């Protein structure tokens, strides 16, 4: 399981992406799971980082799962229309 840091904004996005992708390459599990429970401060850059990790996991032939997403992150993902990609197991709200 990979952990998101407490802050992922445009300022931290490149470093966070690089670290997560590096960790993802060495992830021995059959599924790539990112835990967002630490995430407190974020903007849309966090979604971009997560989408890139999702694509990378797919490229490695591994399922991707985002766990413990804060409600505001889930709302932002819905707003941008990427909730089905990042959180497919969560019910869609209209």
CATH domain fold name? Transcription Regulator spoIIAA
Q: What's the total helix number?
A: 4
User: What proportion of the residues is helical, as a percent range?
Assistant: 40-55%
Estimate what percentage of residues fall within beta strands: 5-15%
Tell me which CATH architecture applies here.
2-Layer Sandwich
Distance between the termini: 30 Å
Largest sheet: 3 strands, parallel
Low-confidence stretches: none
Our count of domains comes out at: 1
Q: What's the average pLDDT?
A: 91
Please tally the β strands and state the result.
5
Would you give an account of this structure?
The structure is a single chain. The protein is built from 4 helices and 5 strands, in the order E-E-H-E-E-H-E-H-H. With 94 residues, it is of the alpha/beta class. It has one domain: Transcription Regulator spoIIAA (2-Layer Sandwich). The strands form 2 sheets. It has a 3-stranded parallel β-sheet, with helices on one face. It has a two-stranded parallel sheet with strand order 2-4.
């Amino acid at each position: 399981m990979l952990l998101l840091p407490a802050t992922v904004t445009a300022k931290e996005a490149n470093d966070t992406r690089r670290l997560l992708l590096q960790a993802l390459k060495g992830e021995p599990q059959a599924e790539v799971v990112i835990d967002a429970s630490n995430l407190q401060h974020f903007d849309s850059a966090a979604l971009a980082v997560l989408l890139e990790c999702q694509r990378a996991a797919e490229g490695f032939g591994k399922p991707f799962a985002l766990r413990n997403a804060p409600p505001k992150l889930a709302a932002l993902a819905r707003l941008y229309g990427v909730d089905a990609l990042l959180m497919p197991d969560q019910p869609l709200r209209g």
